[in-house]
Automatic annotation (TrEMBL):
Keyword flag Transport: no
Protein name: 2-isopropylmalate synthase
UniProt-listed PANTHER family: 2-ISOPROPYLMALATE SYNTHASE 1, CHLOROPLASTIC-RELATED, HOMOCITRATE SYNTHASE-RELATED
Domain Pyruvate carboxyltransferase intervals: 60-330
CDD domains: DRE_TIM_Re_CS (cd07947)
Top-level lineage group: Bacteria
Manganese as UniProt keyword: yes
Keywords: Manganese
Annotated source species: Dorea amylophila
PROSITE patterns documented for this protein: PYR_CT
Length: 463
């Protein structure tokens, strides 16, 4: 104790006692935390009430894996689609580059062509970065393309080290460090993806490994990033939960025990237990500068942290969008539906067709009187999506007029009211539906068809 250094923490302005070193614990049999992860039981969330402090960095940002993890769960994007989406990310991130990086596969010619075309854009942000397995063959691709940075898969739980790689912890660490060193030898900045960190031995492997990575960074004077990958979505944000499931504990451990600077820590979440967004926000709160996302959450199994969700989390936590253009999110959703053929689930927050559509009769009445009552914020301003009222037997002429005006975004000189012939014709059709026994609200497609039919009959042009 008496030999451990006392130093001033620049973030908290408190004197801290230097942590003792964490050597690698090279076990003979894998520690798979069977007390927490008994495969024929639901995983357990245990608590020891060890609380770590919030430590929000001075600057936080978002990185994107739509073209990497996002492509693992759907048909591959074309080169043209990737470049178009990359342009969207550039606009969405704004002049401060809050969408900091886009991550790419390098294995197919199509992906490499997309990388070249995106690099030709010469945007400062998002930076073009790649992902490889921890193999020298994969690393050749990085060198050939001339990447400045690459992600490297470094699986860190004993599930992966013992069962997948068939190695010991020491063998795995030495293998990973050899690839990282090769990266650094050629001047390429490595980003180490600590796969399955929420089932790993944090003090017996993760922190000793990261300490070695920080030594390499000091030796080569090249940044070495750490991506904490909640690969199976086991992470929890509850204060006092035990590691390895505790996201606060993991981020604190990387920062304080392993000495990884906040700007080099990134969190990558999956949504298997519906916690991707809350865990990503927690990573920011406890000291990670970056959170890694995919557009609309599209990714392996249940998907990744939705990028659009973290844009609005950023604004809620910081009190500003810092120049991010959120209207681009709606353009991207339209592009996915019209050009890529992907239909975003209708109730998906911010991007689904019905995310700000009021269906309950009493809610619709309130919305018509003042949209703030039942709309989360000015969705017309931030997403070019005015709130809508779903039409039912209780909507009345005013509700139908509101639906037509907002759905078709009619200018003031073309807006309809309850005296409109078109509105009355639609109201007659709606009444007829419910007189015949209908009990559900009318769908957009049904209303559009009826409105189109009556517009033709009455000679009305809504466009």
């Amino acid at each position: 104790m008496e030999n451990r250094k006392v130093y001033l923490d620049n973030h908290t302005n408190l004197l801290q006692l230097e942590e003792h070193m964490y050597p690698l614990v090279d076990v003979k049999t894998p520690n798979v935390f069977r007390n927490l992860f008994h495969y024929d039981e639901i995983p357990k969330i245990a608590f020891n009430d060890r609380i770590v402090p919030h430590c929000m960095p001075d600057e936080i940002w978002i990185t994107d894996t739509t073209f990497r993890d996002g492509q693992q769960s759907r048909a591959p994007y074309s080169t043209e689609q990737i470049v178009t989406l990359y342009d969207y990310f550039h606009r969405l991130g704004g002049p401060k580059g809050k969408i900091r990086q886009c991550e790419f596969f390098l294995y197919s010619k199509k992906d490499r062509d997309a990388v070249y075309k995106c690099m030709e854009r010469d945007y400062k942000f998002p930076e073009v970065t790649s992902w490889i397995r921890a193999s020298k063959k994969d690393f050749q691709l990085v060198k050939e393309i001339g990447m400045k940075e690459t992600g490297i898969l470094v699986s860190c739980s004993d599930y992966h080290i013992f069962y997948k790689l068939k190695m010991t912890r020491r063998e795995a660490m030495e293998h990973y460090l050899s690839i990282v060193r090769e990266c650094l030898e050629t001047g390429i900045s490595p980003r180490c993806h600590l796969e399955d960190i929420t089932r790993s031995d944090i003090y017996g492997f993760v922190i000793p490994f990261c300490l070695e990575l920080m030594k390499l960074m000091d030796e080569y004077k090249i940044p070495v990033k750490i991506r904490a990958c909640d690969t199976m979505g086991y992470g929890v944000n509850y204060p006092g939960a035990v590691i390895p499931r505790s996201i606060p504990g993991i981020i604190y451990g990387l920062r304080v025990h392993a000495g990884v600077p906040s700007e080099l820590i990134e969190f990558h979440g999956h949504n298997d237990f519906y916690k991707a967004v809350s865990n990503s926000s927690t990573a920011w709160l406890y000291g990670a500068c970056g959170v890694n996302c995919s557009l609309f959450g599209i990714g392996e199994r249940t998907g990744n942290t939705p990028l659009e969700a973290m844009v609005f989390e950023y604004a809620q936590l910081r009190g500003t969008l810092d120049g991010m253009d959120t209207t681009v999110i709606t353009e991207m959703a339209d592009y996915y539906e019209k050009e890529i053929g992907y239909r975003v689930p209708s109730r998906t927050p911010f991007v689904g067709k019905n995310f700000n559509v009021t269906r309950a009769g009493i809610h619709a009445d309130g919305l018509l009187k003042n949209e703030e009552i039942y709309n989360v914020f000015d969705t017309d301003k931030f997403l070019n999506r005015p709130p809508l009222v779903a039409i039912s037997n209780t909507s009345g002429l005013a509700g139908i007029a509101h639906w037509i005006n907002t759905y078709f975004k009619l200018p003031d000189d073309k807006k309809v009211d309850k005296n409109s012939e078109l509105v009355n014709a639609v109201k007659d059709w709606v009444d007829e539906q419910y007189e015949e026994g209908r009990v559900t609200v009318l769908t957009d497609d049904e209303l559009i068809a009826v409105i189109d039919q009556n517009c033709k009959r009455l000679g009305i042009d809504l466009i």
